[in-house]
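Exam revision sheet. Question 4 asks you to relate a sequence to its structure. Input first:
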Amino acid sequence: MKVLIIEDTQELATILVRFLSAKGIQADMSLDGEDGLHKAMIKYYDAIILDINLPGKDGLQVCRELREKEKDIPIIMLTSRSGKEDIITGLDAWADDYLVKPFDYDILIARLEALTRRNLKNKSTTLLTLWDYEIDLEKIEVKGKWEVIHLSSLEFDLLKYFAQNKGRVVDRQELYEKVWGEFEGDFMFSKTVDVYIGYLRKKLDREIIETKKWHGYIAN
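Answer key, C-alpha cells:
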C-alpha cells in the first residue's frame, strides 16, 4: 500500500511516515494543501490521510478538487475538529472517513486497510475495454475487432493495468510496483517496463499507449 499524508505539523507527519513504514506501508508526506493536491494528481496512491487545517488550500478544498477531477482514491480526514457539524462538513466534502486527533495509530491502519479493500472491490470488473480491444479478466483474453490477441501473462497484466487507469499518466515505478509487484530503486529495472510496452505496441498494431516525456505513459 502507498499512502500520501497531507499534514502541516511536520512532527506528526514524520511520526506517521515512520509508523506506516514500520507496518510495511510506503508513505509520502506533504506539509501544505497546494503541494499535497499536486502530489495526489501526478502520483499513484492507494489512500490519502488529509488534515483539514492546511496552509495554501485547506483539506476540504483539496478533497473537493480531487473529487471534481474524478479521483476516487480513499480519503481519511485527520483533524482536531471533533464537533458533529465539523464531521458532517468533512464527509460532505466527499471524504470517506474522519478521525479526530488524538487518535489510535492501529485504528488508523485498520481504517486505511478497510477503505482500500472496499475501493478495490468497487473497481473490480470482469470486462475492460481500451480503444477497440476487449479485455476479459475471467478468460484472461484480449479480443480485437477480428481476432484474439495472444499476450504473455505479464503483457496481459500490463494492458489490464492501463485499462483500469485509462486517461491517467502512470510512471515506470508505479507500473513496476503494481504489475511486477516490487521496485528495487534501480534505474535498470525500469527499462523492463519500456521493453514490455514495446511488446504491447507491436502486438496491438497501434500505439494505444502514449509516451509522456519525463512523466510516464497514458492510455486513452
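Marking note for examiners. The longest helix spans residues 105-123.
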